[in-house]
Amino acid sequence: MQDYEESVSFLGTWGPFQRRVFFLLCLTVVPCGYNLLSVIFLLASPPHHCHIPAHSNLSEEWIQASIPLQRSSCSRYELDLVQNLSAMGTRPKVFLSSLKQEGCKDGWIYSTEYYQSTIVTECFSSWALISEDCYVAFVADTTLLHLYYRFGRKPVLFGSIAMLTIFSGALAFAPSWPVFTVLFFMLGMGQIACYIVVFVLGSEILIGSSRVLFSCLFLPFVYVIAMMLLPGTAYLVRNWRQLSLAMTVPGIACIPLWRLVPESPRWLVSRGRLQEAEFILRLAALNNRVEPPDVIFLSVEKTTSQKAESLSFLDLLRTTNIRYITLILWFSISVSYFGLSFNMSSLNGNPFLNYFLLSAIELPAYVTIWLAARSLPRRLSFISFTLLGVLALLLIQVTLHTVVLAFTLALVLLGKYGIMAGTGMLYIYTGELSPTVIRNTAMSTCAMFSRAGSAVSPYLLQLAVFYPFLPWIVVASLSLLSVFFCIFLPETFRQPLPDTIQQMPPTQR
Question: Where is the Major facilitator superfamily (MFS) profile domain positioned along the sequence (predicted)?
Fold first, then answer.
């Protein structure tokens, strides 16, 4: 089979065609970056305490005293006993230590300092989902629906943007928690599919230095900037239903881009659709003002031996390289990444500013990824960045309960920087290891295992009940696990992308 990149080298690496694809694809990633961690604001649990009904006829002093200093969001002193003591004219502080406690039978009062309403505050009032347990974990994370490579990159990209937009808007009209869960599940499938397909499409159309610039720097930069826009929107729009409607705007703005973004010629060649691939490439040559060869692909007959094959998830698992990545690396690093994001809610301070800083730290991380991708091996880069994040997370144990909270925040951000840089290198590494015929399936399956990790990560907060530092220790340990398995993967630095499964490099022994 003729080498694809050699066949299309006549186009150059940075002509008008490549620049147009470059910037258009960066724009299409805005909707998924904007919606990535919307769950933090939609499902936020503001500070709250047990509601004391007005008909209890308690003085303000007794109402304040009826809430225990510890577990104040979970319980109150038995209201009947408090009413009896109040009627006797007793001072509140006399008998408090001896009173029994009860659950919040009359609901909760939520602080409106940061949020006008969230799913949590509305569930406990309008949707009547009161639980006997103190902490109710509202997690509506998703797993990526397996998007088979046979449908092409472009339809899947815009289909995922459509899903993201439609179901974001539908959230605003959810009448109950089960309906919200289903809608958010569908939204999540669109969100993760969007970034993966943009990454794959850009990696296949662009070659050389422009591909590295796109995948390592510009695409992640635009993605992070979109993430940074969300806390600003959430700050201005404090109602979760209105915020859900605002989340549809980036997707609607991307609709006109359908006519401007081409299909991947590389994918078309891998499917044996040579005429369509040549048509796109000849238009690209016209845009770049270069003369294409008379025949772009010499081996017209069955350019790929897998033209008639129907590769699937099972074929993916038969390749040892991808199996290591999908089953171990992506799950572990995803738990670390999302665990850091969700654990940020346990820190004091303004949630909008914390989220903004947590997103902004990814910008220098991606600059580092870009510089490393140009001159450093993939495996060494991933291991180095991830170990830096592990070290910062382990040091949090020293500063978590110190007076100067800025130290803890700085270590969290440094940990996020290291884990994010490692995650970014893993995207590049996975794309370079995966052959064209199954690259979209590979990346999507990696995203599926990544989402399995993100679904587990919110529950890390629960581990703090046993030991305050345990969530951070688990995140660091999983990152170390991903480093260990990365050792067995082959190096792909400055190697041509494989087009078939047979061209994949073997694992290290």
Answer: 21-494
Both tokens of residue 317?
A: 């698992």
pLDDT score, position 135: 30
Q: Which pair of structure tokens corresponds to residue 21?
A: 């694809």
In this structure, how many other beta carbons lie within 10 angstroms of the beta carbon of residue 348? 9
CA dist 480 and 484 (Å) reads: 6
Q: Give 175-205 pLDDT, tens digit per residue.
A: 888 888 888 888 877 777 788 788 888 888 8
Among 218, 276, 153, 157, residue whose Cα is nearest residue 14: 218
- Tokens 């303000």 belong to 60
Cα 502 to Cα 499: distance, rounded to the nearest angstrom? 8
CATH 1.20.1440.230 fits 1-36+129-297, yes or no: no
The partner residues of 48 in beta bridges, in order of sequence, read 110
CA–CA gap between residue 262 and residue 372 (Å, rounded): 29
Close Cβ partners of 136 (under 8 Å, ≥ 6 residues apart) = 120, 129
Query: What superfamily would CATH give domain 315-508?
Result: MFS general substrate transporter like domains (1.20.1250.20)
pLDDT at 307: 43
In the beta sheet, which residues pair with residue 110? 48
**Within 10 A of 207 (CB to CB), how many other CB atoms are there?**
21
Q: List, for the chain, all residue ranges whose pLDDT scores fall below the cut of 70.
A: 1-2, 48-49, 54-99, 101-108, 123-151, 298-328, 342-348, 400-404, 440-441, 443-444, 447-448, 451, 454-455, 458, 461, 464-465, 505-509
- The rounded distance, in Å, linking the Cα atoms of 451 and 189 is 10
Residue 356 · residue 475 · CB < 8 Å: no
Could you read off the pLDDT of 381-408 as tens digits, one per residue?
999 999 998 888 788 777 766 556 777 7
Radius of gyration of the chain from Cα atoms? 26
How is residue 508 annotated by DSSP?
Answer: P
Q: What pLDDT is recorded for position 330?
A: 74
Listed in order, the ranges of the chain carrying CATH 1.20.1250.20 are 1-36+129-297, 315-508
Distance (Å, whole) CA 408 – CA 98: 38
**Tens of pLDDT along 262-319?**
988 888 887 778 888 888 888 888 888 888 887 777 654 444 444 434 555 566 566 6
Residues facing residue 109 across a β-bridge: 49
